[in-house]
Amino acid sequence: MSHLFDWKEERNLSLLVDFYELTMGNGYLYNGVGDKIVYFDMYFRRVPDGGGFCIMAGLQQLIEYLKNLKFSEDDILYLKNKGLFNDDFINYLRDFKFSCDVWAIPEGTPVFPNEPLVIVRGPAIQAQFIETMVLLTINHQTLIATKANRIVRAADGRTVMEFGSRRAQGYDGAIFGARAAYIGGCDSTACTIAEKMFGIPAVGTMAHSWVQLFDSELEAFRAWARTYPNNCLLLVDTYNVLKSGIPNAIKVFNEELVPLGIRPKGIRIDSGDIKYLTEKSREMLDEAGFPDCKIVVSNSLDEYIIRDVILQGAKIDSFGVGERLITAKSEPVFGGVYKLVAIEENNEIKPKIKISENEEKITNPGFKQIYRLYDKKTNKAIADLITLADEIIDESKPLEIFHPIHTWKRKTLTNFKAKKLLTKILDKGQVVYDCPNVTDIKTYCKEQISTLWDEVLRFENPHKYYVDLSSKLWSTKHNLLTKHNIHFR
Amino acid sequence: MSHLFDWKEERNLSLLVDFYELTMGNGYLYNGVGDKIVYFDMYFRRVPDGGGFCIMAGLQQLIEYLKNLKFSEDDILYLKNKGLFNDDFINYLRDFKFSCDVWAIPEGTPVFPNEPLVIVRGPAIQAQFIETMVLLTINHQTLIATKANRIVRAADGRTVMEFGSRRAQGYDGAIFGARAAYIGGCDSTACTIAEKMFGIPAVGTMAHSWVQLFDSELEAFRAWARTYPNNCLLLVDTYNVLKSGIPNAIKVFNEELVPLGIRPKGIRIDSGDIKYLTEKSREMLDEAGFPDCKIVVSNSLDEYIIRDVILQGAKIDSFGVGERLITAKSEPVFGGVYKLVAIEENNEIKPKIKISENEEKITNPGFKQIYRLYDKKTNKAIADLITLADEIIDESKPLEIFHPIHTWKRKTLTNFKAKKLLTKILDKGQVVYDCPNVTDIKTYCKEQISTLWDEVLRFENPHKYYVDLSSKLWSTKHNLLTKHNIHFR
């Protein structure tokens, strides 16, 4: 498929906002702070499934939303009818022009807790308004890309196909879920529209209903082989895999394909004990002269089952992964948050902090940048350093980094390179970033993951990658905490 | 809000299909069975979270999809470019006219495992094509309506607000999730667009960022009270609930509202120990002369936490429930399936069965109806009886029902009434059903739940509601199983 189609449809999702973003917007305007320049960070606090990192995803959809953000007459009428908002606010929305600056980490990048994935700078009323959509868009796709990557790593080089549309949480769950799964490393999807929209290879052959619709399994297989001689992959578990499905498949391969000099593509098993059935099926297919016939399995798979059956020696070439990928079933919530971190006053950036009795919930104040620090010799990522936005890392000098809480834990880096993770995406509301296509994002993702140590990639209890604060940012935070400590204990 | 808006946007979701629906459709046509009349059942096998029942939801969106099903030139071009489909099939899609009959259980109805929620009768190529969208639409909303109902029952009469958009799995997850949550019993939503689209009350006040944007919490509260004197609900946990938030709220209520003769609406707590903080806050508000000031809590709530804090005596008037509702976090997959159950041959309906070594996965064959049987005296639902579609229940005679597996477990009903659950929705592709508005569905849902025994409503280990097969259906199934048993053991 080289021919790609644009996502032309224009959906009006402008009012996909939490209602408080409207009441606050109206209130900011009423209190004369609507145009005050503020900074919000979108970040997350922990990696789902106890993993070592997440995969940033969803930026393209966020950009599309921001680029098109405006209010229809319908929207305005609806808001007026609420009887809650001042005319000034209604008029502001009618003439709305998005004017924020936005920075973000490119899709496909491995990201870690407490790192701003998206930074929004702009008038309070606007930066506040987009809270829900920033979170919803990034939370969803990052969740699925992260889960997909775990599954793909478990499959250890075998093909992984995303099969979950029917169990997704809504249409976008299926469509953008397929996109995120592909970024995270899946090879293809069953979701046809995802190929049309994004060029992700769509695959699929038959369901049990195909087999049932014919008078016998054998006839159903024959009909398939005659329709798709070059794509002959048969679902063999409608009645009984080893007593009926595989023998019938072999018969049809021999009768319909071999005389034409065509090799069968494979068989699929969607139920029963995967380990036992694939071992036996492999033996039967090999003996029958089809060692090149692939074995595809599906049926409630995830990274844990995949790892287990591979360890047990199951003979599988390809996994179709459905509901547990598309909903990230083991942990279906990505807890990204969107917090005010600074305001501008008299042309100065004034850092703000949100304090909590729970230390983990305390924000990193200020307008920031993230540097990923690589060892020049191994090309492996050593640590990420969150700095204030105007800080510059001098690669020619040793760099001391330290644990943000246990500050006596220190490390001095030499022979490193520093790469900025946050890129400008919108400048005063105008898009200044070219979204790569999903295949390039997927490739980039794989490359980036290869810079992580194995210890960080481990499924369970991975090494905690260092995400440190620069001295300047650490002091900024510490000073604000000290100033506010009157409220604690 | 009485002014409602239509969901005018037309989304082209025609290719939101699993790719195998296309390869099978093409194959059916090629093998001369494309127009064979088939019956598919959509049903589920178990209730999420170990609950006693589910709430049917999503039908309106399914109808909208089926009503508008057609293929754009873009769609056709994409499919042609795949190089896999015959011209006959491409032309069939170009001239596509949906002509299936569809029956369904109305939204808001409590439903049980193995009951067909949707039945599709029509040409194989069409009935197969819509598989993904039937499943995706009903699976998603039924999952969320069911979860919401658990949460609402746990809240035991207190208000429940759906607050989950930012953590939903995609935009539709937020929007249709809010719809399903409302059907399941939530009182309102934070998702603004859900009010515009469906008339679900949208609510919300302020985030922590409001408080942070002003020089002090006190000033932030003052500004709010002046902006919204009649809607003064303050978020009190930005710094410290009991030492700062509540005292400042009381001060502002006294200074800004009392002189105007206005009562405050409430306070919201979004962190910390709910039980302790609400008890103390209640005391402080009562002492200050605001016993009518409501206490709203949010922060990772679900039915278990809500039940627990209520049991412990927490003083809460209203719950804002987010991520755990909108993703059905504890069990985020609704496992609906879509199975071929009959074909028509020589104008006769020929039941089909899908056999599995797992007894639970064996389908109920044939074209069916479901009767809900009510005790006339108590008006409580006693059992559901799945019958062949042409069976009639004579309410004037005793009716013997029996367990579908342990057939010696029998019960004879007298003085009962029988209500058909499946209603015709589309007739030869034309909609013949008027979707009620969501508020009516919500009311209907509540009424229907009141016909269930408390034993079925229990959260954990509920009584298993009887879902039996009529003698005729049971025999049909048994005969087919006997015929096929050659494959087993």
From TrEMBL, chains A, B:
Description of post-translational modifications: Transiently phosphorylated on a His residue during the reaction cycle. Phosphorylation strongly increases the affinity for substrates and increases the rate of nicotinate D-ribonucleotide production. Dephosphorylation regenerates the low-affinity form of the enzyme, leading to product release.
One Pfam match: NAPRTase_N
Pathway recorded for this protein: Cofactor biosynthesis; NAD(+) biosynthesis; nicotinate D-ribonucleotide from nicotinate: step 1/1
Domain of life: Bacteria
Gene3D superfamilies linked: Aldolase class I, nicotinate phosphoribosyltransferase
Annotated ranges, domain Nicotinate phosphoribosyltransferase N-terminal: 15-139
Catalytically driven reaction(s): 5-phospho-alpha-D-ribose 1-diphosphate + nicotinate + ATP + H2O = nicotinate beta-D-ribonucleotide + ADP + phosphate + diphosphate
Gene Ontology CC annotations of this record: cytosol
UniProt GO MF annotations: nicotinamide phosphoribosyltransferase activity; nicotinate phosphoribosyltransferase activity
EC number: 6.3.4.21
Ranges of residues in domain Nicotinate phosphoribosyltransferase C-terminal: 368-477
InterPro entries, per the entry: Aldolase_TIM, NAPRTase_C, NAPRTase_N, Nic_PRibTrfase-Fam, Nic_PRibTrfase_pncB, Nicotinate_pribotase-like_C
Keywords: Glycosyltransferase, Ligase, Phosphoprotein, Pyridine nucleotide biosynthesis, Transferase
Gene Ontology biological-process annotations: NAD+ biosynthetic process via the salvage pathway
Biological role: Catalyzes the first step in the biosynthesis of NAD from nicotinic acid, the ATP-dependent synthesis of beta-nicotinate D-ribonucleotide from nicotinate and 5-phospho-D-ribose 1-phosphate.
Protein family membership: Belongs to the NAPRTase family.
UniProt name for this protein: Nicotinate phosphoribosyltransferase
Species whose genome carries this gene: Fervidicella metallireducens AeB
Organism classification: Bacteria, Bacillati, Bacillota, Clostridia, Eubacteriales
